[in-house]
Amino acid sequence: MPDRSPSQQGSLFGEILDWMLAPLLLIWPISVALTWLVAQGIASRPYDRELGEVARGLALQSAATTPSARTKTRYALAPEAAALLRADASDTIYYQVLGLRGELLAGDAKLPVPTDDAPPVPWELHFRDDEVGIDAVRIAYLWFAPEGAAKGSPLMLVQVAETDGKRAQLTNDIIKGVILPQFVILPLAVLLVWLALARGIAPLNELQHRIRSRESNDLSPIDEARVPDEVAPLVRAINDLLARLDSSISRQKHFLADAAHQLKTPLAGLRTQAEFIQREIDAGRSSPEDLKRSLQQIARASERGAHTVNQLLSMARAEDAEQALNREPVNLADVAVETVRDFVPRALERRLDLGYEGVQPDAARLRVHGLPVLLGELVRNLVDNALLYTPAGGTVTVRVTEDPFGQVVVLQVEDSGPGIPPAERDKVFQPFYRALGTGVEGSGLGLAIVQEIVQQHDASLVLDDTRVRRVAGGELADGQGPGARFTIRFQARMASATAEPENSS
Question: Number of structural domains, the chain?
Answer without folding.
Answer: 3
